[in-house]
Amino acid sequence: MPKFKKPFWDLATPTQVKSLLTERGLSARKLFGQHFLIDKNILKKIIETAAIKKKDKVLEIGAGIGTLTFALAAKGADVVTIEKDRGAVYLLKELAFECPNIEIIAADILKLDLSDIFKKSSKWKVVSNPPYGIASPILFKLISYRKKFSSIVLMLQKEFAARLVAKPGSKNYSFLTIKAQFYMDIEIIHKVSRNVFFPPPKVDSAIVLLKPLKFSRVKVSDERLFFKIADAMFRMRRKNLKNSLEPLSFPSEFYKNPPIDLTRRGETLSLEEIGELTNFISNITPRNCKSISGTKSSEF
Predict the structure, then answer these.
(1) Which CATH number characterizes residue 91's domain?
(2) Domain span at residue 256?
(3) Residue 289 — pLDDT band, cuts 50, 70, 90?
(4) Last residue of a domain, one of 187, 212, 237
(5) How far is Cα 284 from Cα 273, in angstroms, rounded to an integer?
(6) Which of 285 and 295 is assigned the larger pLDDT?
(7) Over residues 281-295, mean pLDDT
(8) Is the predicted pLDDT of residue 288 greater than 70, yes or no?
(9) Domain count for the chain
(10) From CA 183, how far away is CA 264, in angstroms rounded?
């Protein structure tokens, strides 16, 4: 019989985590980017940031051994957690056997269609400590379902979090910044030491709160074109706009009287200025705009 009896939401201590892993013959797997939280104060901070209430519908990505999962369930949330590691899934299903408010899905989040999950409720919260190695595609996927979420609370690598809130012209400003800020309000809530995980990762972390905007931050005539321009800007971020936008084959009229100085580097443009370029190009190339905006981006 297992030593760990309910409640299991007291897992955020070094002793509990190490004992559980040893008893079950498990270990943190680099393949899945596993680092288990062992600090109750940080766990509490995550829950408080998400403002979890009874019967909240919560999506978690990367449950691991369930430290966050059971803490969310203890607050009365209905938790759907997605875990790829089969060993962790087996453990989670055993521990959560008598927890009706926890649903465990064994799947790769990047391959999973979330539509069926979201049919269960009109509004969800995301609370997760996702694998850092795939944080970018996970965030892009969550953005694509943004209308389903009231809030998203993520534990992220500190440098990744800095990119989400970066300002134009800074070293952290990137396509990721543009994509996230276009659709979200973003705030770094708390910086987190690498020492609150077992085993400790090589980087520090941050708790980040993202709230989907009702409308996009910038009104543009063609969102796909907006992101094609942003993508081109950051593919060659050290070049000026004239050179970085050249592969998009805009008509010559664009270069005669552009709304933005084309000698500037793309990395200095705000979302509003990228929006100006987008609307200008849409207006002067109504026939060509569809083919331009339909070109596939490397970022997706």
Answers:
(1) 3.40.50.150
(2) 223-293
(3) very low
(4) 212
(5) 17
(6) 285
(7) 61
(8) no
(9) 2
(10) 25
